[in-house]
Amino acid sequence: MKNKEAKRAYDKIYNQKNAVKKRAQNAAWRNANKEKMQAYRDKWKLENPEKHKSALAKYRAANLVKVRAATIRCHKANPKKYKADSRKWWLANKPLTKIYSQRRKARKITNSTPEQIASADAKILQMLSARKTLCAYCSKEFKTSEMHVDHVLALARGGAHSAENIRMACENCICSKGDKILFLEWRPPQPLLLPL
To answer: What is the pLDDT of residues 141-195, one digit of tens each?
Structure first.
């Protein structure tokens, strides 16, 4: 036991005194054993997914500029791959895509608070969980996948991206309404008997 502790203490002092030499030796070993290192990393990632995820998040937070630059370089080097991956993800996550696009639009146009955006996201997910839903403006029944999220008072007119300001509507009503003010500039064909 004492020998192990003494060796650790000796190694620590030696490594501090010869830090540059040790770094060079380690780099040379890593370059000579790239496959071994990659296999070890892959094995560790599989065995420790939570640690890997937190370490990656910590690194990204500490090196945001570096990570963004690397991402941009990868996107420019492989545009077809990233476009295909992005499309695949959007097709596999349709409910989330509606939330992301509405949230992005809300951030660009309005001064919605994070709490309002969170409540709107929760309401959108709740509405999208149903198999079928009624259009808020014409009362026709549609599949949820055919519905669109509408802001009663459009974001372009200063409406908030909040749970109180969003409704599910069909494509015809959405296109017809646009950013018009409800009942003043645009009259819904057959609104639901729900408060709009």
So the answer is: 888 777 888 888 888 788 888 888 888 888 888 888 888 888 888 888 887 655 4
SS3 166: strand
**21 Cβ partners below 8 Å, 6+ apart?**
none
- Mind listing the pLDDT tens digit for each residue in 5-50? 888 888 888 888 888 888 888 889 989 998 998 999 899 999 999 9
Answer yes or no: are the C-beta atoms of 153 and 178 closer than 8 Å. Answer: no
- Beta partners for 141? 134
Looking at residue 53, its amino acid is: K
Task: Please answer whether residues 138 and 167 qualify as being in contact, where contact means their C-beta atoms are separated by less than 8 angstroms.
Answer: no
pTM: 0.48
Q: Domain spanning 94-177: which CATH class is it, in words?
A: mainly alpha
The boundaries of every CATH 1.10.30 domain in the chain are 94-177
Cα 146-150-153 angle, rounded to 5 deg: 165
